[in-house]
Specification:
single chain, about 160 residues, mainly alpha, TerB-like, globular
Length: about 160
Amino acid sequence: MLDKLKRLLLGEAPEKTAEIFADRDIAIAALLFEAARADGALSQAEERLIAGLIERKLGLPSDRAAALVALAAKRVSESVQLYAFTRAVNDALSAEEKIALIEMVWEVVYADGRCDEFEDQLVRRLAGLMHIPDRDRAEARQRALRDRAAAGKETP
């Protein structure tokens, strides 16, 4: 609301794409994008994986998923904290849905075949901010690794 008012007062064009996505969906995509860039490198494979997850899990067509990923990337670059995204997730998702989101985050983390310390720290922070117990976070990680192995992808 304040962003819209600020843009209006500054004479900037309103962000029309944001209006077609729910805050929950923007937050989900933003958290996935944040996970992809946690290790300091954002690959095309990670971007494709995020778009694919958004398509499958949120039921969006590929063009809308791509638009949502682009909007999320913009929002992440403008934000200095995770709280706004996790608050939107906490407000909109059930405990089971939040655990499923953490599993998606693990999928993005392992897109390059490994998990570095920054990625691991990020997932721990996200799980904490979303009130997900350590056990559920660890089980989500194991499911993501099992799915990766079932798809024939190696993980060191």
